[in-house]
Amino acid sequence: MKSLSILAVDDQSLFREGLALVLTRLFPDVNLRQAGSGPEALEMLQEHRFNLLLLDIGMPGMNGIEVARQVLRQYPDLRIIILTQYNGEGMITHLVRLGVHGFLLKNSESQEIKKAIETVLDNRQYITPMIHPSLLKEEAVVAAPSIQFSKREADILIYLKMGKSSKEIAERLALKENTINSYREDMLQKTKTRNVAELISYAYENGVLG
């Protein structure tokens, strides 16, 4: 394999560090850098050359779908493997159409990670077997979601996913409880979802959480 330079992008530092340990064990000569957000990743891509991007989808503020869209446009030779803990149809089929090169679930074993990297660097697509093939059929592809979430909304979604109440979220974000309720109602209206459970499902399917 030619010299390997990887940028790993995930907003959870613990996951990034664990991934880094796996990658350096699998590829001892790898040149590995890390980014904790979409904007940081795009900045690093301007400063360094990489041949592989390992990209988390569910990042607050600028999610992985938007990062992938910009990278594929600006760096067409850069290979992208999506890392996610969710295998929903809406997100995956859109990213297939967008042109990403691989998909891995975050609980993948190290040997599958190695196989995926070697496959996409060989100019072939890698889709984890844990994603059902029916999701990748051309007729299943859906349009990209047009709804955007602010960083504050994404932060609130993360706490809602954890089952936190409006009062608890308000305390953690130093906001008023009514403000949290207002954010939640706004997100329900713009996503046309009926409750928090549907809102969280929407967020997973469209890459806001991942």
Automatic annotation (TrEMBL):
Domain Response regulatory as annotated: residue spans: 5-121
Entry keyword DNA-binding: yes
Protein name: Response regulator transcription factor
Keyword line: DNA-binding, Phosphoprotein, Transcription, Transcription regulation
GO biological process, one term: phosphorelay signal transduction system
Top-level taxon: Bacteria
Domain HTH luxR-type: 142-207
Molecular functions per Gene Ontology: DNA binding
